[in-house]
């Protein structure tokens, strides 16, 4: 009798839909899409074309921008679904959008960690920084994509339970395949330790060491300025990490336990599901916050963006002036033609 009541409570709570879910997701994606698209496109353009310094974590920033841009480009499909509550596209496209979300999350986590670690390492070991090769960053980035891409593959597969039967559902409305408790524990442990705890430790250590080096060493003013810039970049990476990814990973173990029917307290289940929605929205903000790392924390990016952005603006102004001049000349020619026509009639 008690077991039946517990199972009934679990069923009622785990099937509960949050009434604000669709509107919150749609609003969040709409607000993120245009700024994320413009900022990351501009960042990728500047980073790839105009920055050649090898000791500024540029390769990691480019990869971070690519990860953000891939997710941003999938947002219109998410917006369409949460507004219309219907998925008219192919099953594979739903799974791809779902995959890109988590690929962006964990790729961003690792690239932010690499940026912090490299800036700290080059600051503390300046002589080694001179011998650092760009191909090292390329190799590390390729390894991150392979590891993260492989590790994220089970996530869309796990959430495709109802997709084969009914293709009108997608994203948050997807079911969850039944997996063993051991598999669930293994997946949560790997995601939490590898995707959250280890990066938190590294970023915290880098922030502490960078701040400590600024306080302890007596260095020339130009070196002090460089150390302050490095500290600001590491701190910005930490802020993005804490704001965007910490809430999700704090709630993720409880969310998985709710899905595995471990809890029977309805209010706790509802709070967990509610916080899961909010934490996913916060995780999406990294697409807009990451470009802040490039612009405000990297002087080369700021200088190049201002210089070439100004050149583009000046070119547009010149084009507009030329067009106005051509139009004025055409009007003058028309006036002269009319005057000549009038003179011929008079004669």
TrEMBL record:
UniProt KW keywords: Cell membrane, Disulfide bond, G-protein coupled receptor, Glycoprotein, Membrane, Receptor, Transducer, Transmembrane, Transmembrane helix
Q: What is its main location?
A: membrane
Alphabetical GO biological process terms:
phospholipase C-activating G protein-coupled receptor signaling pathway; positive regulation of Rho protein signal transduction
Any one Gene Ontology MF annotation carried by this entry is:
G protein-coupled receptor activity
Q: Which residues cross the membrane?
A: 24-47, 59-83, 103-124, 136-158, 185-208, 229-248, 268-296
What GO terms fall under cellular component here?
plasma membrane
List locations, semicolon-separated.
Cell membrane
The UniProt record lists the G-protein coupled receptors family 1 profile domain at 39-294
How does this protein sit in the membrane?
A: Multi-pass membrane protein
Which InterPro entries does this one have?
Answer: GPCR_Rhodpsn, GPCR_Rhodpsn_7TM
Signal sequence interval, chain numbering: none
UniProt cross-references to PROSITE patterns, sorted A to Z? G_PROTEIN_RECEP_F1_2
Function of the protein: Putative receptor for purines coupled to G-proteins.
Which protein are we looking at? Putative P2Y purinoceptor 10
What organism is listed for this UniProt entry? Marmota monax (Woodchuck)
């Amino acid at each position: 009798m008690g077991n039946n009541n517990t199972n009934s409570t679990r069923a009622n709570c785990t099937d509960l839909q949050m009434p604000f879910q669709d509107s919150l997701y749609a609003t969040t994606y709409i607000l993120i899409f245009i700024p994320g698209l413009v900022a990351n496109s501009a960042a990728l353009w500047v980073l790839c074309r105009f920055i050649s310094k090898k000791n500024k974590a540029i390769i990691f920033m480019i990869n971070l921008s690519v990860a953000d841009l891939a997710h941003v480009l999938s947002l219109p499909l998410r917006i369409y679904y949460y507004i219309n509550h219907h998925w008219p596209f192919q099953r594979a496209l739903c799974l791809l959008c779902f995959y890109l979300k988590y690929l962006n999350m964990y790729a961003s986590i690792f690239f932010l960690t690499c940026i912090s670690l490299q800036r700290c390492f080059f600051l503390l070991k300046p002589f080694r920084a001179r011998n650092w090769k760009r191909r090292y960053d390329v190799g590390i980035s390729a390894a991150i994509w392979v590891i993260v891409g492989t590790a994220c593959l089970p996530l869309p597969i796990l959430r495709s339970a109802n997709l084969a039967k009914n293709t009108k559902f997608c994203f948050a409305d997807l079911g969850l395949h039944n997996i063993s408790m051991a598999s669930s524990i293994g997946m949560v442990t790997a995601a939490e330790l590898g995707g959250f705890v280890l990066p938190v430790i590294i970023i915290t250590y880098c922030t502490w060491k960078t701040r400590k080096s600024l306080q302890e060493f007596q260095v020339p003013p130009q070196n002090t300025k460089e150390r302050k810039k490095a500290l600001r970049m590491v701190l910005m990476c930490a802020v993005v990490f804490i704001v965007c990814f910490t809430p999700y990973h704090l709630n993720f173990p409880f969310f998985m336990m709710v899905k595995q029917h471990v809890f029977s307290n309805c209010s706790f289940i509802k709070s967990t599901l509610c916080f899961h929605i909010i934490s996913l929205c916060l995780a999406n903000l990294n697409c807009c916050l990451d470009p802040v790392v490039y612009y405000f924390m990297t002087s080369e990016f700021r200088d190049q963006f201002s210089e070439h952005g100004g050149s583009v603006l000046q070119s547009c102004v010149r084009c507009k002036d030329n067009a106005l001049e051509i139009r004025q000349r055409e009007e003058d020619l028309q006036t002269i033609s009319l005057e000549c026509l009038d003179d011929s009639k008079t004669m």
